[in-house]
Specification:
- The structure holds two protein chains of two kinds.
- The longest helix of chain A is centred in the N-terminal third of the chain and has 18 residues.
- By secondary structure, chain A is of the alpha+beta class.
- In chain A, the strands form two sheets. A seven-stranded mixed sheet of chain A has the order 9-10-8-11-7-12-13, sandwiched between helices. Chain A has a six-stranded mixed sheet with strand order 1-2-6-3-5-4, sandwiched between helices.
- The radius of gyration of chain A is 24 Å and the shape is globular.
- Chain B is α+β, with helices and mostly antiparallel strands.
- Chain B has two domains: about 210 residues, Metalloenzyme, LuxS/M16 peptidase-like (Cytochrome Bc1 Complex, Chain A, domain 1, 2-Layer Sandwich); about 190 residues, Metalloenzyme, LuxS/M16 peptidase-like (Cytochrome Bc1 Complex, Chain A, domain 1), CATH 3.30.830.
- Helices cover about 45% and strands about 20% of the residues of chain B.
- In chain B, strand 1 and strand 2 form a beta hairpin.
- Chain B is globular.
- The N and C termini of chain B lie far apart (about 60 Å).
- The chains are: A alpha+beta, B alpha+beta.
- Chains A and B meet through helix 2, strand 5, helix 4, helix 10 and helix 12 of A and helix 2, helix 3, helix 4, helix 8 and helix 10 of B.
């Protein structure tokens, strides 16, 4: 075998790009309002299933932050007359992987299983979603497990950094407290709070069951009707919290002392944008350039040029109302103050040094040409459909995504990103050895305050 | 329950220079995975140069003869692709998943570093990535709770000089010692076509893709590769090894490493099913007993790692507040002894088998993951088709197989035990 000698001097030409075929979806609605969305894909004997309920952490009652999380964890701890260990054995025997995730907007029950046990999986889903027992002893046990976990999280510098940052940016707004709650609020959660959260928030209004994989849509619909047709309860879409105002004046740099640290964790943040913000697509492009890609400005600077970190990145947490925009990295202690200053400089640079043509092309291409591999597996497809359901995106959203991204101009990016790059609105957090860090930070930044984790003022 | 199986048509070829090529066509999505795995990892490192295979992996993203620094990532991301590399005890891999129109781009980049890496490397790039890797060590190990436990455990489990004794990330002083000459030596020694497997899976024509592979890689001559390190098999003769370290943590954790069947051992799948039965799912023996019933552990995990020359069967249990490491260890031992002596039920084995098969599907349902699984099977087992046989092999694991492997493995003299305890306030 031997072909012609290749020309190695430049990248070889591309072959013809095949169009992506997005999976066909069948959409149904049960009489009680539950939406059922099914994508058929028989390549492998697997099914990915998600039940999305309007039970996000934003619906946690004030003072009971963490109710959505604790409710989610308790669903499998006894249901439909079976005890906690019986439900566990039921799932484990099927070989199914089951998880519950309570984000700010919704709670998602996810099931991945082989298609030959789909019926059994739906039985479990029905039991845990509709008839969790919330037995007193199990609630007490799982709450204690959660409190232990909160205590163990104190060991993690990245958790201290994240929690300090959201508190600094959002204050008393719901987004200023972790979705899973803090010790004070979780301590107050008992059987009554959990059962009441479940009763008010779990139900067909606003809910959707999404299934992709080795299923027949008609057969699945019948199976779902049988198990969820008589489902009642829930109040539909939770009223989202009002958007948070930008953080008022306060210390710019919050320094959390962690004397044992081998490195310094850095965060920068401000109030970002909502999913569906009018500049949404420009923000996707802008963030890719600033800190979303490996070749982003911040990663190329702090990692590939300076060698100070394993990686640096930025992200918008798009939610039903504006979540945070966050920059994050972890650097060697000696470089922390310089790295933080570089981070701020790169953010300001999004306005002062508008994206080059090359940066615009890279960002747009990475977003649109990656679509095919984001729709490859059944689990990926259910995740994409989930996004559409939660944010009310039109059915042809992914078909139109390409033109929306390609329509973003350099001016759009500068304008959109400019709203968030104002240094005065930024809150900066450093977690590390305060004794070494405080002086250096004070040389670079006006206001530096040493605080205890997470966000408590030291006496 | 019927055992649903899966099957992929893999085509295995050998180029004249010894590069193994494995191909599989899957037209369902217009993407293709290119996966190049070299048979070199941390176990091949020489004394005083721990972490070198991984540092070297970083350098391979710093450009090569025809590709400037920073451009490798840029080309792939500009094409909408994803890419990465990883290093482990036995192997190092590099991979791209790109739109299928860009197969040649990925082959151009991978072949340029196999053939012309040494033309692009400089002292400056080495120093830059040395800084990055030292910060990776700080971030992922030194600054993470319990982050130094695993390397300490390896030091207990294996004797001085054993190739599996040191962690892939390496030690700081060895990273400092790495020289440009080491880089050139390592490249010449191990990055030969006859020491690698190239896997291409996805929207491709197998004959065309094979011709492309030959066009890009065929001109690099085969060369002598150093003999693999001699690896002493560790069994019960070494006796139980124990240690304790302090860390900035709230609660103790107990780590156990049992010398178990390697990936090549006929009992590997039974060993994997045993770990699942012990700790996967809330009804698994360790979870049920330690977390639910006795409430001495916050969490407990077990793994069987697919390694070439040794078997690592790991149990990691985190204490609840107020429970000491010795108490936790005793509770873990009660469960392991019980499994070994009183056995396990047919139901538990069936559940574990089902979980393993579901998890196997999850490991092959994307072209990138499938290429990874094929490359591992080819390099570590010399058998790319194992990916197809694995389903049936897991399905065939019986209760007796699990009891046999538990009886042979879960013995104190075959293990190292490490306690990580909260540091005393100074």
């Amino acid at each position: 075998m031997s072909g012609s000698a290749p020309d190695r001097s430049s990248p070889p030409p591309s072959a013809e790009l095949r169009a992506v075929e997005l999976p066909e979806l069948e959409a149904f609605r049960l009489d009680n309002g539950l939406r059922v969305l099914v994508g058929e894909d028989h390549r492998l004997p697997e099914v990915s299933l998600r039940l999305i309920v309007e039970a996000g952490a934003s619906a946690d009652p004030a003072g009971h932050e963490g109710a959505a999380e604790l409710t989610g964890r308790l669903l499998t701890e006894g249901a439909a007359g079976r005890g906690a260990q019986e439900v566990a054995a039921w799932l484990d025997r099927l070989g199914a992987s089951f998880s519950v995730s309570a984000g700010y907007d919704v709670t998602i029950l996810s099931l991945h299983l082989l298609s030959d046990v789909l019926d059994g999986g739906l039985d479990v889903l029905r039991a845990v979603a509709r008839e969790p027992s919330f037995a007193e002893a199990e609630v007490d046990r799982v709450r204690q497990e959660r409190l232990d976990e909160i205590d163990r999280d104190r060991d993690k510098p990245e958790v201290a950094a994240d929690h300090t940052l959201i508190r600094a940016v959002f204050g008393d707004h719901r987004y200023g407290t972790p979705s899973a709650g803090l010790r004070e609020s979780v301590e107050g959660l008992g059987r009554e709070e959990v059962a009441s959260f479940h009763g008010g928030r779990y139900g067909p209004p606003g809910a959707a069951l999404v299934a992709c994989g080795d299923v027949d849509p008609g057969v699945l619909l019948e199976a779902v009707e049988e198990r969820f047709g008589s489902w009642e309860g829930g109040r539909g879409r939770a009223v989202p919290p009002q958007p948070a105002p930008p953080a008022g004046p306060g210390p710019r740099v919050l320094l959390v002392d962690r004397p044992d640290s081998a490195q310094a964790e850095l965060r920068l943040g401000t109030v970002g944008a909502a999913y569906g913000d009018e500049t949404f697509f420009a923000l996707l492009v802008g963030n890719a350039i600033l800190g979303g890609l490996f070749n982003s400005r911040i990663n190329m600077n702090l990692r590939e040029e300076k060698g100070w970190t394993y990686g640096a990145r930025t992200s918008f947490h798009f939610r039903r109302v504006a979540g945070p925009f966050v920059g994050r990295t972890a650097v060697e202690t000696a470089a922390a103050a310089d790295a933080l200053a570089e981070f701020v400089r790169e953010m300001e640079g999004m306005v002062g040094h508008p994206p080059t043509n090359e940066e615009m092309t890279l960002a747009r291409n990475s977003l649109v040409l990656s679509l095919p591999r984001q729709f490859e597996t059944v689990s990926q497809v259910t995740r994409k459909i989930t996004t559409q359901v939660v944010y009310g995106l039109p059915r042809a959203y992914w078909e139109r995504y390409r033109e929306r991204i390609e329509g973003v101009t350099r001016d759009d990016v500068v304008r959109a990103m400019g709203r968030f790059m104002e240094p005065e609105a930024l809150r900066l957090v450093v977690v590390g050895r305060a004794a070494e860090l405080e002086g250096r930070l004070a040389e670079r930044f006006d206001r530096v305050e040493v605080v205890g984790p997470p966000g408590q003022r030291l006496a | 329950m019927q055992g649903q199986s899966v099957h992929f048509d893999f085509d295995e070829r050998l180029l004249d220079n010894g590069l193994r090529v494995v191909l599989e066509q899957d037209r369902s999505t217009p993407v293709v995975a290119v996966h190049l795995m070299y048979h070199v990892g941390s176990k091949h490192e020489r004394p005083g140069r721990t972490g070198f295979a991984h540092l070297f992996e970083h350098l391979l993203f710093q450009g090569s003869g025809h590709v400037p620094k920073g451009e490798h990532f840029r080309y792939i991301q500009n094409a909408g692709g994803t890419l990465n590399g990883s290093t482990w005890f036995d192997r190092t891999n590099y991979f791209e998943v790109v739109p299928s129109s860009e197969l040649a781009l990925a082959l151009w980049l991978e072949s340029d570093r196999m053939g012309f890496f040494d033309q692009g490397i400089t002292r400056e790039k080495l120093d830059n990535q040395r800084g990055v890797v030292k910060n990776e060590r700080r971030q992922s190990y030194e600054n993470r709770p319990y982050g130094l436990a695993f390397e300490t455990l390896l030091g207990l489990a294996y004797p001085e000089g054993h190739p599996y004794r040191h962690p892939t990330i390496g030690y700081m002083e060895d990273l400092d010692a790495a020289s440009l000459e080491d880089v050139h030596d390592f490249f010449r020694s191990y990055y030969a076509p006859n020491n690698a497997v190239l896997v291409m899976v996805g929207d491709l024509d197998p004959e065309d893709a094979l011709a492309e592979a030959d066009r890009w890689f065929g001109e690099f001559p085969a060369r002598d590769v150093p003999d693999p390190p001699e690896v002493e098999r560790i069994g019960g003769e070494r006796g139980e090894r124990r240690g304790t370290i302090e860390d900035a943590v709230q609660v103790p954790r107990v780590y156990m490493l049992y010398h178990a069947p390697s990936f090549n051992d006929p009992a590997f799948e039974a060993s994997d099913v045993l770990t699942s039965l012990l700790a996967e799912g809330k009804s698994s023996s360790l979870h049920r007993e330690l977390v639910y019933e006795r409430r001495v552990a916050a969490e407990v995990e077990a793994f069987t790692w697919p390694l070439e020359d040794v078997g690592m069967f790991l149990v990691v249990a985190t204490a609840r507040p107020g429970v000491s490491a010795p108490e936790l260890e005793e509770a873990v031992d009660d469960v392991l002894d019980d499994v070994r002596t009183s056995g396990v039920s047919e139901d538990e084995v069936e559940g574990a088998r089902n979980r393993a098969r579901r998890s196997l599907v999850g490991q092959v349902n994307s072209v990138g993951d499938r290429a990874d699984a094929v490359a591992h099977a080819a390099v570590l087992r010399d058998d790319p088709g194992y990916v197809n046989r694995a389903f049936d092999r897991y399905l065939a694991v019986s209760r007796e197989d699990v009891l046999d492997v538990a009886d042979a493995t879960l013995r104190p003299e075959r293990r190292a035990v490490l306690h990580v305890v909260p540091r005393e306030a100074s």
